[in-house]
Write a structure and sequence with these properties.
about 35% helix; about 180 residues; seven-stranded mixed beta sheet
Length: about 180
């Protein structure tokens, strides 16, 4: 359980949240999000596309009621990983991005990924979370491993070389228990 404070998520509103998201995804710390040159309209269009997709969903994460992170969940049978691995029943893909800040809080990003995982595993149908961050994103690899992800192998996606990693409900619970 996080001592950082309460986190909640709500469905992202592509039109209303585009300006906020634009600041986040074009920030230098979001380089791995690959939207550095996006305009606010590009961001709105991308999240409208996601909102219209049956197997891909975006959420705005709130900390104490204020926007603090972006969370995406997707079905890897239809989005991002099609043909790159053999999905199992209950697999859920995930992306997350913590909002840039001038006042970093120690442990905040780890608290966010923990909250994201709790949200995903709150659905009893979720058996395993799948991630595919850029192989060069060492910071997120460490965060993923801290919450129970186990790297399987590198894969080639159209936009990047990625580290395919998995975290079962049991691995997440064990990692959470180990950090308590």
């Amino acid at each position: 359980m996080s001592t950082i404070g309460p986190f909640t998520v709500r469905p992202l509103d592509p039109e209303k949240d585009a300006e906020l998201l634009h600041r986040w995804v074009t920030h230098p710390k979001a380089a791995f999000w690959m939207m550095q040159d996006a305009t606010p309209r590009d961001v709105e269009r991308e999240y409208a596309r996601i909102a219209a997709h049956e197997h891909h969903h975006a959420y705005l994460g709130l900390h104490d009621g204020e926007p603090a992170f972006l969370m995406e969940k997707y079905d890897p049978r239809y989005v991002d990983l099609v043909g790159l691995y053999e999905p199992l029943p209950g697999d859920v893909g995930m992306h997350f991005l913590v909002a840039p800040t001038d006042r970093p809080v120690h442990g905040f990003t780890r608290a966010v990924i923990t909250a994201v995982m709790e949200e995903l595993f709150a659905d009893p149908a979720t058996r395993r979370v799948v991630v595919e961050p850029d192989v060069g994103n060492k910071a997120v690899h460490a965060l993923n491993e801290a919450v129970g992800f186990v790297p399987e192998r590198e894969i080639d996606k159209p936009e990047k070389r990625a580290l395919l990693s998995f975290c079962t409900r049991e691995q997440f619970e064990a990692a959470r228990g180990a950090s308590a």
